[in-house]
Structure formats: structure tokens, C-alpha cells
């Protein structure tokens, strides 16, 4: 059967992708950010998955105010890189895994989650920046990727508990797939940041650190934190962090197994007025 072996958590700041694309990774401002992912690149090479389930939020490229799915799964064979206003990033197209994606949709919907099935979707920096941080600049991404989009842009957005439970349902779906696949699940977004208004530029290191602590030790407690706490303490865009809970919900300790092992933890501020957080957990 297929199994989820690890989870990766990372911010998906668009300026990070631009820094890579424009050859600025060695500049003093950006160097500390990319240094924090050196271990991760080697870890991914040493632990290459067959499929990545990548949880992200669309930034008004695939979806708009005309249609806002709460949870959407990309079931296509491939996904083009979105043009976010200055042309598509110069990165490989994303190859999907329609068979596993369809199986996940079937299983998770039968588990009473309403998923939107997406058979055509361009993917933006929310998905491509994490791949770049973990893979560098390859000719092709190392394996197929199934995009899982969560609405954290237009309220109402799903609760942390709902996202955690979605992760549990996804794990159940993967483990019922009858092919032997090594699957990783990645949760992206955040950390603390606000892009507009009187608090633009807000970064809360204490909140971010406490969030990462609970993500490791007590994700159920973190899932119970209400949205207003994220907005108040981590800024209006800090709510993206609930997407990390989807990946965390798929880990072994929340599904009758032992606690995961922390392989890497990294935090840096700022990166384009955003706090960058990163974790790698391996299932026990």
C-alpha cells in the first residue's frame, strides 16, 4: 500500500522565488534564507518521494472571487506555471498523479469532506516556491505533485481543526491506495506577516515560535486556536498557517502511531516583510 513517510512545512514568499530566478541567492539579504534550506535539499535527495501532496493557497490565479472552493484537489496530468502579472516563473511545469489524486478525492469525499475536483489549473508561487526551496533549479521536479488548494484568502476560511482532520482523512485515503508509493505531504504558507493597512510589515517571532512548538508537540491544541488569534497576533496573512495543520494531521502520532521525528527546524526574519518558517518531520 501507499504510505505517508514525512511532512515538510515551509513559507512560500513570492520574493523568494524571484530571488532565485534573478540570481540573488548569494546576496547578503537573501543568503541566510537559503542557507536554512541547504540541509533540506540534501534530505529530499536522500528521501526522494514517489509523490508529493502539496497543500497551498491560490493567490487569485486559478480561482477568483467568482469561484472560491474551500478545499480543492488538482487531478490533472500536469499543471502549467501561472502568470502572476510578470510572466510565469522560469521553472518546470508540474506533473500530477491523476490516479492517486482521484483515489484521494473518492476516499475523502466519502469521509464527508466536500472537495472541489480541479481538472485544469495553473499553479502559482504558493506551490512553486516551496518546490524551488526544496529542489533548487532542476530541469524537472523530482516526482509528481498533487496540488491541494485551501482557501485562506476570502472569509469564511476553514478552521484549524477542519484542516487537521482533512490531513487525517488524506492519510487514510493514501493508505488505502493499492500501489506501493512513498508519499510526502507538504504544508505551506505564512508565517506571521501582514501586507496592508496600519500594521503592514508586522512580524511576531514569539507567536511563530510558539506555533512551531505546538505543531511538533501538540497539534491538536494548535488546531483549537481560533482565527482571530492568528489575525491579531500574526497579521492578516498569518492565517495561512492553518494549512500547515493539514500536513500535520497526516502524521503518524495522530493516526495511532508513534510521534514523528524532527529532522530540521529553521526560522528567519525577514524575507520581504515576512517571517520564514520551515520544518521537516519524519513519521515514526
UniProtKB/TrEMBL annotation:
Record key words, sorted: Dioxygenase, Oxidoreductase
Q: Does the keyword Nucleus apply?
A: no
Xref: SUPFAM superfamilies: LigB-like (SSF53213)
List the Gene3D superfamilies hit by this protein, alphabetically.
LigB-like
Positions of the Extradiol ring-cleavage dioxygenase class III enzyme subunit B domain:
8-276
| GO molecular function terms listed in the Swiss-Prot or TrEMBL record | dioxygenase activity
Q: Name one Pfam family in it.
A: LigB
Recorded hits in InterPro entries, A to Z, give: PCA_45_Dioxygenase_B, Xdiol_dOase_suB
Is-annotated flag, keyword Protein biosynthesis?
no
Name by which UniProt lists this protein: Class III extradiol dioxygenase subunit beta
Species this chain originates from: Polaromonas aquatica
Amino acid at each position: 500500500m501507499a504510505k505517508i513517510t514525512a511532512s515538510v512545512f515551509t513559507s512560500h514568499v513570492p520574493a523568494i522565488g524571484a530571488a532565485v530566478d534573478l540570481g540573488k541567492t548569494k546576496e547578503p539579504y537573501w543568503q541566510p534564507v537559503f542557507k536554512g534550506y541547504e540541509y533540506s535539499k540534501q534530505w529530499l535527495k536522500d528521501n526522494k518521494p514517489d509523490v508529493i501532496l502539496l497543500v497551498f493557497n491560490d493567490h487569485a490565479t486559478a480561482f477568483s472571487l467568482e469561484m472560491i472552493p474551500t478545499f480543492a484537489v488538482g487531478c490533472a496530468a500536469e499543471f502549467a506555471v501561472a502568470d502572476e502579472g510578470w510572466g510565469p516563473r522560469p521553472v518546470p511545469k508540474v506533473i500530477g498523479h491523476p490516479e492517486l489524486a482521484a483515489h484521494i478525492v473518492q476516499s475523502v469525499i466519502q469521509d464527508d469532506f466536500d472537495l472541489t475536483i480541479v481538472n485544469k489549473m495553473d499553479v502559482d508561487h504558493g506551490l512553486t516556491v516551496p518546490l524551488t526551496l526544496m529542489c533548487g533549479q532542476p530541469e524537472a521536479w523530482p516526482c509528481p505533485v498533487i496540488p491541494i488548494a485551501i482557501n485562506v484568502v476570502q472569509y469564511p476560511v476553514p478552521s484549524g481543526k477542519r484542516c487537521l482532520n482533512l490531513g487525517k482523512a488524506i492519510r487514510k485515503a493514501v493508505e488505502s491506495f493499492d500501489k506501493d508509493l512513498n508519499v510526502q505531504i507538504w504544508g505551506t504558507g505564512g508565517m506571521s506577516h501582514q501586507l496592508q493597512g496600519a500594521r503592514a510589515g508586522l512580524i511576531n517571532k514569539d507567536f511563530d515560535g510558539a506555533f512551531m512548538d505546538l505543531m511538533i508537540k501538540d497539534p491538536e491544541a494548535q488546531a483549537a486556536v481560533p482565527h482571530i488569534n492568528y489575525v491579531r497576533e500574526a497579521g492578516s496573512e498569518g492565517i495561512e498557517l492553518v494549512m500547515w495543520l493539514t500536513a500535520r494531521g497526516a502524521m503518524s502520532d495522530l493516526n495511532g502511531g508513534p510521534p514523528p521525528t524532527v529532522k530540521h527546524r529553521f526560522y528567519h526574519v525577514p524575507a520581504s516583510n515576512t517571517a520564514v518558517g520551515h520544518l521537516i518531520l519524519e513519521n515514526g
